[in-house]
Design a protein that fits this description.
seven-stranded mixed sheet, alpha+beta, FAD/NAD-bd_sf, 390 residues, binds flavin-adenine dinucleotide, FAD-bd
Length: 390
């Protein structure tokens, strides 16, 4: 099943503004929809606000790893996931400097973000979440001790009030939060993300394989999400894009890595992101929790962002539930610590790998060593797939 039907608002803005919500969740990606649904299942009144019209695309490699699949299964969404059109992932094939290595994968699937995110919003609505879209909101500064946190719609400046606010607005989150203490800071050398849904590609790109091409100026991941779509996602140095188009930059990376049969990278709509690697000093502020990419993000080489988002979305339910019953300032430090426990270890791995990939000679040696000793590569894959208790 492909979920490409429009998902409309289930509430008018005027009604949303006339309600004091237990929780307002900003952003209907994985983290936001999972969090909103979990809180509604606890009997809380939840408003999920999304700036895009659903279904929407999202720059992403579209590969859900074993941990993310297990996370969705654990919250009762395994059947819904299986009903979508997915491609089971069996291999990770990495190319760098004309060499390649192949590692086996288990338990993950490639799935279009259009279908996956729509399925999650539909599940949240079915659990009682009210969905307001397309509406962009910004979070204003909080008055100390305020009993409610207010967010405001960007165009009509309509205030929306909640006992708690969950910011799950992804990498875009730094733009619309007026809160100095929790401001997110992008890494100076951070790459930016690019994405394309490609319908014209050589048959040699088979289903079930993640192809990863690594070169000096970035890396490109390719995976089929259906019989006729090759999902392309890349992390590219900003200066590489000053002199050429996204399609050219990705083509150069694929060629430098040694992939000779190329998909058509020059037609279709490329999408971009803001700088990828960013951190927040604390994962919350007064009556507010950051979750998913909004709480901090590392370049996506290991393809774990969705697992982190599902983990965060599940864990914030208990934290927000307590905050609705009675807010206290210690909850900010507690949530920051929980977030670090949930994703910190994996993000350290990911940061190390991403740094290593910036040194071409090191990448070449890594490919050589892992192709000689595949058990090393399998150990890394196992580590990345490891489930973390929520
Ligand atoms: C190039 C690239 C490749 C990747 N590949 C993979 C991969 O293969 N596997 C993997 O697991 N992860 C991958 N990731 C990471 C993954 O895409 C993210 O980690 C994941 O989407 C985070 O989910 P989220 O819910 O936190 O945010 P998002 O999915 O970004 O959702 C945020 C939502 O908030 C909405 N929003 C934003 N601002 C506002 C606002 N002001 N008001 C209302 N709504 C708003 C947006 O429209 C969006 O719907 C990749 C990322 C990139 C950039």
């Amino acid at each position: 099943m492909s979920m490409s039907m429009a998902i409309r608002s289930t509430i008018e803005l005027s009604e949303a503004a006339a309600t004091d919500w237990d929780a307002i969740v900003i952003g209907a990606g994985l983290a936001g929809s999972v969090a909103a649904r979990g809180l509604a299942q606890q009997g809380r009144s939840v408003l999920l606000v999304e700036r895009a019209t659903f279904p929407r695309d999202k720059v992403c490699g579209a590969c859900l790893n074993q941990d993310a699949v297990a996370g969705l299964e654990a919250i009762g969404l395994g059947d819904e996931l299986r009903r979508l059109e997915t491609q089971p992932l069996e291999r990770f094939q990495m190319h760098a400097r004309g060499r390649s290595l192949c590692l086996p994968l288990t338990g993950g699937v490639a799935v279009s973000r259009r279908s996956l995110d729509s399925m999650l919003v539909a599940a949240a609505i079915a659990s009682g979440v009210r969905f307001l879209s397309p509406v962009t909101v910004r979070v204003g500064a909080a008055a100390a001790e305020a009993p409610l946190r207010t967010v405001e719609t960007l165009d009509s400046k309509t205030p929306l009030r909640g006992q708690t606010v969950i910011v799950a607005s992804g990498l875009a989150s730094q733009k619309r939060i007026d809160d100095e203490r929790s401001e997110s800071v992008a890494d100076q050398h951070s790459r930016i993300g690019l994405g394309l849904q490609c319908r014209s590609f050589p048959a040699s790109f088979s289903s079930g394989t993640i192809y990863m091409a690594v070169a000096d100026q970035g890396y490109v991941g390719l995976a089929r999400t259906s019989a006729d779509v090759l999902n392309i996602a890349a992390a590219v140095d900003r200066q590489a894009l000053r002199s050429c188009s996204p399609g050219q930059a990705c083509q150069e990376i694929l060629q430098a890595a040694g992939i000779t049969e190329l998909p058509d990278l020059h037609t279709g709509d490329w999408r971009g992101t803001s700088p990828l690697t960013r951190q927040r000093p604390q994962a919350g502020s007064h009556r507010l929790f950051f979750v998913g990419d909004a709480s901090g993000y590392i370049e996506p080489f290991t393809g774990e962002g969705m697992a982190w988002a599902v983990r965060g979305g599940r864990a914030v339910v208990a934290a927000a539930d307590r905050a609705i019953d009675g807010w206290n300032g210690d909850m900010i430090a507690q949530w920051t610590q929980t977030t670090r426990q949930l994703v910190g270890g994996h993000q350290r791995w990911c940061r190390m790998l991403a740094k290593g990939l910036r040194y071409p000679a090191l990448t070449g040696s890594m490919v050589r060593i892992v192709s000689k000793f595949p058990s090393l590569g399998r150990a890394v894959v196992r580590q990345l797939n490891q489930e973390v208790a929520v």
